[in-house]
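Ligand: MTE. Inputs:
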Amino acid sequence: MAGRYKSDLTMADVTLKAAWMNRRQIMAGAGAAALGAIAGPAMAGLGAKKTGYGQGLEPNTWEEITSYNNFYEFGTGKDDPVRNAGAMKTDPWSVKIDGLVDRPGEYSMGDILAGVTLEERIYRLRCVEAWSMVVPWVGFELADLLNRVGVKPSAKYVAFETAYLPEVMPGLSYPIVSWPYTEGLRLDEAMHPLTILATGIYDEPMPNQNGAPIRLVVPWKYGYKSIKSITRISLVESEPPTAWNGYSASEYGFYSNVNPNRDHPRWSQASERRIGGGLFSKKIPTLMFNGYEKEVAHLYEGMDLIKYH
Ligand SMILES: Nc1nc2c(c(=O)[nH]1)N[C@H]1C(S)=C(S)[C@@H](COP(=O)(O)O)O[C@H]1N2
Ligand SMILES: [Mo]
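Predicted complex:
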């Protein structure tokens, strides 16, 4: 099924070339170079509270959401994550929360979910590769966790890290982005009520290929900001380095807000292919901030969104 959705232009096309180039350069002793040129789920049920988010959106099927994935640690093919991510052990799991917080520590999933009411959030997911889905996430607001650990006034950004597990992640052998995968948000973006930590889909526990046991979802930004299988959250003073920005800053900005008026250097961002419907997968216009303009535009007032893409 996944093979049906081969996209013309993907991050992987260049990344494979970049990996090859990097290896060649490393072998030549030149070091790394900037390469800018180039069916329904089971019925266990998490009991997530229904919310008004996403009313009117038609969610993609469980099959679509869990078999067409980007999780480069498990390979660059869209069907590599579903094939390979099962080997990742997600229980027990803990997240280190450190930096500018009142109560730093190694928090178990039990600690993180204690007292949390899980909610359903039906959001659009817009990949920078110009495809999209609608996903009924289960999760809770990141702000809720940050408030519980206590953010110090000097904190301005939040940095995230994915698990680094060479025994089960074949993708780590390829120097595509710098591993472990990292991401970051400005503190006000992290505290926005649309920003969630997700632990499930369709009221079921998060499948490994989608970022079990806990991943970020920032619906107004390109999908790669929504970092999977998080093991570390750090409150920091300055803009943290992020995986894809480090790979190519002109292609992948720190902000990465969905913006139909700012094309990727190698393809248009004005429209997207909504996964689903097989051969009839629809091309639809891309919306500013992925359709969340009313909720988030104020975060960027006065900012040049082309420069700060
Ligand atoms: N750690 C990690 N997180 C990641 C990625 C990745 O390769 N590694 N891919 C990103 C990209 S490009 C997208 S589009 C989304 C895809 O999420 P999904 O597979 O749940 O649809 O995850 C993002 N999070
Ligand atoms: Mo993506």
